[in-house]
Each structure stands twice: as structure tokens, then as C-alpha cells.
Design a protein that fits this description.
This protein is of the alpha+beta class. The chain has helices spanning 3-14, 35-45, 50-61, 71-83, 123-128, 154-159, 164-173, 177-181, 210-216, 223-244, 308-311, 317-333, 346-355, 371-380, 391-395, 398-401, 424-439; strands spanning 90-93, 102-110, 114-121, 138-144, 187-193, 197-202, 219-221, 246-247, 256-258, 271-273, 280-281, 295-296, 301-302, 314-315, 412-416, 443-444. It folds into three domains: 3-68, no CATH class; 77-202, Phosphorylase Kinase, domain 1 (2-Layer Sandwich); 210-444, Orthogonal Bundle (Transferase(Phosphotransferase), domain 1).
Length: 450
């Protein structure tokens, strides 16, 4: 098989666009006899992680630990069992025993792979899990352990493509104080409730998401506020790329939240990046030398926020920074570039990126944005990912240099938003396409049921 055919095989078969079903056909439409034969074909290609995946699934098929599971799902289960021997952040507990460790209360949200709720630790948790001591409330994500290969969460797929030591390095990094200080949501412990459920215990965000905060604004935020938020978003991604060694793959306002409630005339709380369901763990942490490299990965994310190269089947650190560029454009100009807001689906979004250019002169905004803000936004929205700023370069941009302390949320420009922004109609207009996309399954890469 030629190298270009190898990549095509990887994209069409190993990473099918429909994540809800195992691939049924090969490159030319011939039936694939089984996942077992598929993994053997993968290993024969010599692609990164392929032989490791073949070995893992072979071991899973020979094990009686998780009967009834398809090969990759069984391999993931065995991986969890293996890492818990040397990782105190994963605790295997008996079936239906989560309630003895945490008392669940209000539901916080529901996604493609699980539900999130608020929980308080019990005396048993405080006694047996040192990492949760000193805190009274947590957010907990409940995830059903997959039985079918097609139901594996994206982050789980990436775990099977890296070594155990690399997975442990990633998991450990997400539990550190450095992650919390770097605007990431911090994980504390994962409870593996055999045989069906995993509970991920993490920081509780008490404030609104960035999406809700944007909608609530009656004036354009001052550029000091915009640059301060931009710096925090970049800091989170810089940590995820350079320390944890992973790609987020779904950077958008809904996946940033404030650590505490927002109060008028008070400094904005710390902003945090969350929702790691579509994260892809890399074989090695990103360096400045590799910060513009792309990997052959399936299309993933939410349609209006997907970078041009991702639509072409490749993604990397620049693809996450594209999302920051779009968010900052919204904060500064109160609109999305490239006419992306008008795109009802992925095909329209991809076409808009191909046809339209970034043109600040056409933006319908009452703000006279500074040259520094325009330059910064443009550096993150280069269609060519090789020309896009890296996180190192972006964090050193002069526009961000004066945003060390967050201004108060009452710091606003003199520009009042157009009158329509104060009505429910604007909220509908601004977020309609994202809500519609979600309802139509356009958050690509997520399952439709928990």
C-alpha cells in the first residue's frame, strides 16, 4: 500500500466520520470481516501507535477480565486496570459504591459522553482520598464505560495510541496545582466503578461560562478585558500543549468558565478551560519546534469553531489557537469573522472558510478597535496553520503585555452595543447556529447519548 493510501486508510477506516458504528467497509467498499482483522491491518501499516494498539487488543481478547467487550473497549478497560497499580488518581471501587464516597446534588449539564453534577465528599472520601481533602464541593462527570469500540470517547482512543507511561504523564499533569494556576480545570481523582461507570472528580466552576457572560454584556468590553481573557485562554492551551501534551480540539466559549460568580465593579474571576471529552493525547509534549506540526486526525469539534486544516483531516496545536482567535474576534467586534455565524452546518462552514477573507473593514461594530488588537487577532486567524502564531509567540504579543491583572467587569468601552443586543432576538441570532449545530449532531466527534 502506498504512503498516501496509508493515510487514506487511516482516515476512512481507523477514524470513521460516524463514531457511532464500527467501520463496515474497507477502502473500496469491501466488508471488513472483524475488528480483529482490522487491527492486524492497522499494525501492518507501521503508523504511530498502530502496533501498540494491535498488542493491546490482542491482550484484551485473551482476557476474561472484561467479557462481552469489543477489542478496543476491552483494551481500554485493561489499560485502566494497569495504570491504577502506579497511579493514585484512579481508584477502583465496587459496583454502586460511588455514593459512599460522594453525595450528589444538583445536575450541572449533560454532554455526548456523560453527565456532570455537583457533589460533596463524604467522611469516607476524606479519609481514603487525600487529594479531595480541604474542599467541600466538586464537579463530577459520570461516564459510562464503553462496551463497543465505536462508543469510546476521543480521549480514550488516544490513550490506546500512546504508552502507559505517556498516559500517566498526562493524567498526573492534570491533577497538579500548576494546571489550576494555568487556567485549566483541575482533576482530583477518577473512581472506576466496576464494571460500568467512571466518575471524574474535578474543580467546581461557580461562575458562568464565557458564552453566558458574553450574552449578558450590554456594552462592548474594554480592550483591557478582552486582552486579559485572551491571555488566560492562551495560558490554558499553552499548558495543555506544552505540559500535558494534548490537543483540546473543541475550543469555544461554552468550554471556558469563570471559577467564581462575576460581580459588577469587581475583577473578573479566573477563567478555566474544561470539557476534555474530545482531547487527543499526543505521544510527546509540544515544543516550540513542533508547535506548528499537524497530525492526520479525523474532523472533530463544533462546526463554526473548526479550523481550516481540521476540515482537511489534519489537526495540531495551531488548530486550538484558531479557536482563541475566533473568540477574541467576538469579544472585540461582537461578530464572527468569515461569515461563520450564518453557516447552519459543516459544509457551509467549510465553504465560508474557503471563500471568505478576514477583513476588519467590513465588521459591523461601533468600536474603533486598536491596531494592536487587529494584529493579534489576525495572527491567530491565518488560514495557513504554519503562519499562525504559536502559544509562545501569542503570549508575548504587545497587546497582551499590559493584561497582567484582570480589569473589573465594569471596565467598558464607550461603545454601547446595538439596541438589538439587549433583546432575546440577539441571543438567538448570535448562538442560533451553534445550538442548531449541536441539535443536529454537528458537534463532531461526540456520541449522542451518555
Amino acid at each position: 500500500m502506498r504512503p498516501d493510501s496509508d493515510i487514506l486508510f487511516w482516515r476512512r477506516v481507523i477514524a470513521p466520520q460516524n463514531v457511532h458504528a464500527a467501520p463496515a467497509t474497507g477502502l473500496r467498499g469491501e466488508p471488513c470481516c472483524s475488528w480483529a482483522s482490522l487491527w492486524k491491518a492497522v499494525a501492518s501499516l507501521g503508523l504511530p501507535g498502530a502496533k501498540r494498539l494491535q498488542k493491546a487488543t490482542d491482550g484484551a481478547r485473551g482476557s476474561q477480565v472484561s467479557p462481552g467487550l469489543e477489542p478496543a473497549a476491552a483494551a481500554l478497560y485493561r489499560r485502566f486496570e494497569e495504570i491504577q497499580q502506579s497511579f493514585d488518581g484512579l481508584l477502583q471501587v465496587p459496583h454502586s459504591s460511588f455514593g459512599s464516597y460522594f453525595q450528589a446534588s444538583a445536575a450541572l449539564g449533560k454532554g455526548g459522553f456523560g453527565t456532570v453534577f455537583c457533589a460533596e465528599p463524604t467522611e469516607k472520601a476524606l479519609r481514603e482520598i487525600p487529594s479531595v481533602r480541604g474542599r467541600t464541593r466538586f464537579a463530577v462527570k459520570r461516564v459510562n464505560l464503553p462496551k463497543r469500540d465505536a462508543d469510546i470517547e476521543m480521549i480514550g482512543r488516544s490513550f490506546l495510541m500512546v504508552s502507559v507511561s505517556r498516559q500517566l504523564e498526562f493524567l498526573e499533569s492534570m491533577r497538579t496545582q500548576q494546571s489550576a494556576d494555568s487556567n485549566m480545570i483541575r482533576n482530583y481523582v477518577q473512581l472506576l466503578e466496576v464494571p460500568n461507570t467512571m466518575y471524574i472528580v474535578m474543580d467546581m466552576l461557580e461562575g458562568p461560562t464565557m458564552r453566558d457572560w458574553i450574552i449578558a454584556q450590554e456594552h462592548l468590553a474594554g480592550e483591557g478585558v478582552c486582552s486579559g481573557l485572551a491571555r488566560q485562554m492562551l495560558t490554558a492551551l499553552h499548558f495543555l500543549h506544552r505540559v500535558a501534551g494534548a490537543l483540546h480540539r473543541d475550543v469555544k466559549p461554552e468550554n471556558f468558565g469563570f471559577a467564581s460568580p462575576v460581580h459588577s465593579k469587581s475583577p473578573l474571576p479566573q477563567l478555566k478551560l474544561f470539557d476534555l471529552g474530545l482531547v487527543w493525547v499526543l505521544p510527546a509534549v509540544v515544543t516550540e519546534a513542533t508547535a506548528s506540526e499537524l497530525l492526520p486526525l479525523r474532523v472533530c469539534g463544533t462546526t463554526q469553531w473548526i479550523a481550516p486544516e481540521t476540515w482537511m483531516g489534519t489537526s495540531g496545536p495551531p488548530s486550538d489557537l484558531w479557536g482563541v482567535g475566533l473568540i477574541v474576534h467576538i469579544l472585540v467586534f461582537w461578530c464572527m469573522p468569515f461569515d461563520l455565524l450564518t453557516c447552519p452546518d459543516g459544509a457551509a462552514a467549510r465553504l465560508a472558510l474557503q471563500r471568505n477573507t478576514l477583513n476588519f473593514a467590513t465588521q459591523h461594530s461601533s468600536r474603533q478597535a486598536s491596531e494592536g488588537s487587529r494584529r493579534f487577532i489576525a495572527s491567530l486567524l491565518h488560514k495557513d496553520p504554519r503562519q499562525r502564531s504559536t502559544s509562545n509567540v501569542a503570549l508575548a504579543d504587545p497587546w497582551l503585555c499590559g493584561s497582567g491583572d484582570m480589569p473589573t467587569c465594569s471596565e467598558q468601552s464607550a461603545c454601547v452595543l446595538p439596541e438589538r443586543s439587549l433583546t432575546e432576538e440577539v441571543e438567538w441570532m448570535f448562538w442560533h447556529s451553534l445550538v442548531h449545530a449541536s441539535a443536529q449532531g454537528q458537534i463532531i466527534g461526540a456520541a449522542t447519548s451518555a
